[in-house]
Specification:
Blueprint lengths: L2 H4 L3 H9 L7 H12 L4 E4 L6 H12 L9 E4 L3 H14 L8 E4 L5 H9 L4 E4 L1 H9 L10 E4 L2 H6 L3 H11 L4 E6 L4 H10 L5 E4 L10 E7 L5 H11 L5 E5 L2 H12 L5 E4 L5 H12 L5 E5 L13 E4 L6 H8 L9 E7 L3 H12 L4 E2 L3
Parallel strand pairs: 1-6, 1-7, 2-4, 2-5, 3-4, 5-6, 8-13, 8-14, 9-11, 9-12, 10-11, 12-13
Helix pairs in contact: 3-4, 4-5, 7-9
């Protein structure tokens, strides 16, 4: 199956080819033909890393009238990083296509600057729910012409406390716009949202977790005592001194502490987490993408939307709480057809959690020593 087979026009495919997006993923094969032909309400259950942005982004671009300067589509995302990444991807998709303008708006940045940006022609608004509510209250954005609303990682938005904001936004757009909802899980609040704001015959698709993991990733684990973690990381990093990678921690404090410990041992490292101001996050990400940093330490939620080429490894300082976070973390490596290592540090009873991840995601961990 090719993107041409799915109905994507050549001037969009040309942009995809430059991004090394050549073969459609399962979610893209299932979603794109329906959204191109019908574009009505859709519920997609799929993990992070399945290619959802292109699955909804390409049909979304096809629905935009480039001659109209009105806001015609709204994409809601749980974090500012993911919102920024979505807007950048949409921009890259359209390199050889009509000029379509997408603007990302999110908390943690100056709202006045975002209001000025929205004064320019903007056909797609990519927003975090809280910031969108702020802009609506200031009458800085008009949703009257919105005909498509995308909820990307809807369960994550709810887990971050955006239930009230999502309900307020959907009440305003319901009946006028088609809703495309994507979520890794379907908890009761998501089901209620689907029932309250979407068509009863909304098209439904689901991608099994076992089909998500990149097969070019080698999954490794080290069984160790918690006090041995730092020395083991140091040995690993010295063995991979010429390579770049990421280390995931569960908490902000853990990420900060590990960054200080590794910096004191002369590693080129910095951390990105929720306590940083937006300009500080941007500064760290610019340094990492420009290869002025060799190692980036991140928490799970903040890392949503990070897309950096040529990362050789991912280290799980602790195993994640949720299965989909393992998919998201490990998917930072082995991109564009390359191979990579996903190394988990496992302490005591975490072995049981590791085996649950193996079973759920249909992968196999190999024990190693460093």
């Amino acid at each position: 199956m090719t993107f041409a087979d799915l109905g994507i026009p050549n001037n969009l495919i040309k942009g995809l080819n430059e991004l090394n997006i050549v073969t459609p993923t399962e979610i893209q094969e299932l979603a794109i033909p329906f959204l191109l032909e019908h574009g009505t309400d859709l519920v997609g259950q799929a993990q992070t890393g399945t290619g959802k942005t292109a699955a909804y982004g390409l049909p979304l671009l096809e629905r935009i009238d480039p001659k109209s300067e009105q806001v015609q589509a709204l994409v809601l995302a749980p974090t500012r990083e993911l919102g920024q990444q979505i807007a950048k991807q949409l921009f890259k998709f359209t390199k050889y296509y009509h000029k379509i303008f997408a603007e990302a708006v999110y908390g943690g940045a100056h709202i006045d600057q975002q209001i000025r940006a929205l004064d320019r022609p903007t056909q797609i608004v990519v927003a975090t729910p809280g910031r969108l509510i702020d802009l609506l209250e200031r009458e800085a954005v008009n949703l009257d012409s919105v005909r498509t609303i995308v909820l990307d990682e809807a369960d994550e938005m709810l887990s971050l406390g955006f239930k009230k904001e999502l309900n307020a936004i959907l009440r305003q757009t319901s009946g006028n716009a088609s809703t495309w909802l994507f979520s890794a899980t379907m908890p009761p609040d998501i089901k209620a949202m689907i029932h309250n704001y979407m068509s009863a015959d909304a098209h439904r698709i689901e991608v099994e977790e076992g089909n998500v993991i990149n097969r070019n990733i080698e999954h490794q684990y080290i069984a160790l005592d918690v006090h041995d973690k730092l020395n083991t990381i140091v040995r690993f990093l010295k063995q991979h001194a010429q390579e770049r990678g990421m280390i995931f921690c569960r908490t902000k404090a853990g990420a900060q502490t590990l960054a200080k410990q590794l910096a004191s041992k002369n590693f080129s490292v910095d951390a990105i987490h929720g306590d940083l101001l937006q300009k500080e996050r941007n500064k760290v990400m610019r340094a990492f993408k420009a290869e002025r940093l060799q190692i980036l330490i991140a928490t799970d939620v903040v890392a949503r939307g990070i897309d950096v080429a040529d990362l050789a490894y991912v280290i799980h300082h602790q195993l994640p709480e949720q299965f989909e976070y393992y998919t998201h973390r490990s998917g930072r490596t082995a991109r564009a057809g390359k191979s990579g290592i996903s190394l988990a540090f496992v302490v005591g009873q975490e072995l049981n959690r590791m085996h649950a991840i193996e079973k759920k995601l249909n992968i196999s961990f190999r024990e190693v020593r460093y």
